Amino acid sequence: MSAPFLYRAWILASMVLAPFAARSSMRKLHAQGVTTKRSQEKLGHATQPRPQAGPLVWLHAASVGESLSVLALITRMGQMLPTAQFLITSGTATSAKLVAQRLPPRTIHQFAPLDAPRPVKRFLKHWHPDAAIFVESELWPQMLRRTHATGARMALVNARMSEKTVSFWAEWPRAARYIFDVFALILTQNDAMARNMLRMHAPEDRVARGVNLKSLAGPLPVDANALREVRTTLADRPTWVASSTHDGEERAVLSAHRTLLKRFPDLCLILAPRHPERGDIVEDLIKAAGLSCRRRSRGDAPGGHVYLADTMGELGLWYEVSEIVFLGGSLLPIGGHNPFEVAQSGAAVLTGNHVAAFAETYALLEAEGAARIIADGDDLAARVAQLLTNPDELIAMTSAAQRFVAAQDDQLDAIATRLITALELDRA
After folding, report:
1. Fewer Cβ neighbours under 10 Å: the N or C end of the chain?
2. What span, in angstroms and rounded, lies between the C-alpha atoms of 58 and 273?
């Protein structure tokens, strides 16, 4: 299949834009503590040797959520392929840090190369993967076509595209076929996305519904010493968590907490904003609401009316501390955040109704009895109060969360087996 105009135009554009993109990308990585040596991975310069024993399976994800979602898949594929080695690439410093803490056996992390000729060629010349798995919406044209040209078998998993992306590819059928033809298998998150892949001119015989990989990821890491210290400090205080909140949501959460304090004067709110760098702003909001605040990033011990958990990588800790979790990004039209992480801790999930990004998941969690949709801050206060005063209802919700998580394990086996077959990897 000859390269369409759109692909050739992208190659020329990337050659012009690559130096600017490289400087911008490397500057961001440096600002987040990534070394100069490792930031060179964005230009395709490997910082680790390629494993020589066994086939190398490359998995590429964009950022934190996508990267963490494939770790359980790598672990399961590694159990089925005892000689295989794995390479996972991502684009952000945060994803690199969190993945490094949870790397499965025989797995290496690198930053993904920029989608320009030289970085991609350097990357592929060094790593030369035997198979490649791309996650969600990572459709970088040169990365895909140049990997395909090496002879590697390829798959797209957890496929999820915005309506804008779907419409774009639908209007460029020749370019879309050229891109999607590289995949031996395309697994979507749901039936609607499977239909959209066909609208985007993906090969019909290679498209199938999979599952949302985020439902298969293992529980978030928890530092046992930190958990013991937090529990000791909070002692018998009732506690609830509001996590991954965005600008415009904290006011509603704090208003709910003020209402709750009238009935539960010893109640502690652990507030973990989605972006910890907003810590100063959120602290000001807490004080403006007339509430006392202690702050994790300052080394304060848990306590006060509100404990501001403005650090990275500790959500698993807070989900273990309380069985009541409100998940943000949902009171405003943001799309919601990953409820699987909450369910995997065995906590009850409360969320606003703006959860388009996880609509099917919340429907399943609601049907199971593990999640409740709330309308606003007043409703949030009422729901939390109900769970605090009705232990049987709270136990029912947390038990439902545990059942929901247990049901996902068989699906992980099925997805891993399907990928191994499509990528023609030897299980011997």
Report:
1. C
2. 32
Mind listing the pLDDT tens digit for each residue in 300-311?
A: 999 999 999 999
pTM (predicted TM-score): 0.78
* Widest distance between CA atoms in the chain: 70
Provide the edge-to-edge strand list for the sheet that holds 293-295: 293-295, 306-308, 268-273, 239-245, 324-327, 348-351, 371-373
What whole-number distance in Å separates Cα of residue 120 and Cα of residue 123?
Answer: 5
Nearest C-alpha neighbor of 303 from the set 315, 281, 284, 321: 321
Token pair belonging to 361: 């998941």
User: How far is C-alpha 221 from the chain's CA centre?
Assistant: 14
The whole-angstrom separation of Cα 350 and Cα 130 is 43
3-state class (DSSP) for residue 35: coil
Rounding to the nearest 10 degrees, give the CA dihedral for residues 248, 303, 291, 264.
Answer: 100
User: By the 8 A CB rule, do 305 and 291 touch?
Assistant: yes
- Give the sign of the dihedral formed by CA 267, CA 273, CA 278, CA 281: negative
Read off the pLDDT of residues 281-330 as tens digits, 9 standing for 90 and up.
999 999 999 999 999 999 999 999 999 999 988 999 999 999 999 999 99
- How many CB atoms within 10 Å of residue 27? 11
